[in-house]
Every structure is written in structure tokens, then in C-alpha cells.
Amino acid sequence: MFEAVTFLRMFARVTALCTLAALLSVASSFELHAQTSATQQPDIDPNVERRDIREFDIDSENVEFGAFVGIISIEDFESDVVVGARIAYHINENLFIEGTYAQATAGQTSFEVLSGGAPFLTEEQRDYVYYDVSGGYNFNGELFITDSLVFNTDFYLTLGAGSTDFGGDERFTVSAGAGYRLLLTDYLSVRFDVRDHVFNSDIIGVEKSVHNLTFTLSTTFFF
């Protein structure tokens, strides 16, 4: 009986010592974790370094003026160099109104070249001159050259009407097209345009609607 009681007392003492040691170990672990958390850097640094981006906007003025050069394909009369000028008023960043004036010289028809007969037009009548007024809509965008150099761009659609002086007569003309504008500075841009000028013509026979495509490159300034 005495030996059993002694064994139980020893077992209780050992259990108490083990429990105390475990508690001290847990307390030490919590203290170490707290110290580590206080000195450890966060996984995500909230102080994000800001980049300086150089971005050109359209100047505060709304008038755009420039000259262009390109190629015009005159239906039935070959292709020729076209030169002209355009002026636009930007109502807002999306809508604009534009006036265009240009001239070219028509070549010979395939019949004239092959037959060697009398020409359809005199030299004066081969002068091709057109002017029109168009409405346009910009789809604004950006072109990233480097991480710190960004250019504003516009892809735009146009629709307009005007007149074409060709073949000794003035003809009502409808024009439609698209273009791309790259703003190099806040006042200078480079544009590439594609336009189709449609009018009725009976120069080489039965009257028909002719399509005259122009591809032009221009430099424009904002005032």
C-alpha cells in the first residue's frame, strides 16, 4: 500500500513538471513568433514606385490644319499623284468636321492606250479636282513606344459630300473613308487616310457610278 502511494506521488510530480515545461515551451514559441513578425518585411510593399509617363495630348486648340500627298486611283483613267490640304474643327475628343481640297491629273484609259485613237478628254479636261466636307468620329487610343514614352492615337471614320471637277463637268460626290492619326507632340500629328470618292460618270459610255480611291499621308498642326 505504501509503495503504491509513493508511486502515485512521484507520477503526479513528474506529470506536473512535464506540464510546466510544455507551457514554458509554448510561451517561448509565441514570444519568438511575435518578435519575428515585428521584424519581418511584409510580402507586399504598399509603397509602389510611380513611373513618370511622357504622354502627348492634343493641344487645347480645336483647329487642325495640314497638307497631304498620296496616290489616287481614278476609275478607268489609271492612277496619279494627288496633293491637297485639309482643315478640321474638333467639336470634342471624338467628333470633328473636316474640309478637304485636292487635285490630280487623270491618265489614259486602256482603250486609248491600245487603240491609239482619238483621246476621250483634252489635256485640260484631265485635271481632276475635288473638294468636300466630312464628319468624322475618333476612336481614341495609345501607342506605347517604351515604358516611359506614350503617344496618343486616333482611329477614325469619315463620311462626307462635295464636288469633283473632272472631264469638263462638275459632279456631286460622296466620300467615305478611314484614317489613323499619331500625335507626335501636343500640336503636331501624322495621319494616314484612305478615302473613296463616288460619283456618276458617263465619260467613256453609259453612265455609271465610279469609285476613286485615295491613299494619302499628311502632316497636320493644331492651333
Blueprint (SSEs and pairs):
Layout: H1 2-39, E1 54-56, E2 63-73, E3 79-90, E4 95-105, H2 110-115, E5 127-144, E6 149-166, E7 169-183, E8 188-201, E9 208-222
Parallel strand pairs: 1-6
Antiparallel strand pairs: 2-3, 2-9, 3-4, 4-5, 5-6, 6-7, 7-8, 8-9
Task: Describe what you observe in this structure.
The structure is a single chain. The mean pLDDT is about 80. The chain contains 2 helices and 9 strands. It has an 8-stranded antiparallel barrel. The protein has one domain: Porin. By secondary structure, the protein is α+β, with helices and mostly antiparallel strands.
Task: List the defining traits of the structure above.
223 residues, alpha+beta, Porin, 8-stranded antiparallel barrel, 9 strands
Output the CATH class name.
Mainly Beta
Major sheet details: 8 strands, antiparallel, barrel
Mean pLDDT: 81
Overall 3D form: elongated
Low-confidence stretches: none
Question: How many domains comprise the coordinates?
Answer: 1
Run of helices and strands: HEEEEHEEEEE
Proportion of helical residues: 10-25%
N/C terminus separation? 113 Å
At CATH level 3, the topology is Porin
Strand % is over 45%
CATH architecture: Beta Barrel
Task: Please give the radius of gyration in angstroms.
Answer: 40 Å
Category by helix and strand content: alpha+beta
The number of E-state strands comes to 9
Number of helices: 2
Oligomer: single chain
Across the major sheet, the strand order is: 2-3-4-5-6-7-8-9
Short description:
The protein has 223 residues and is an alpha+beta fold.
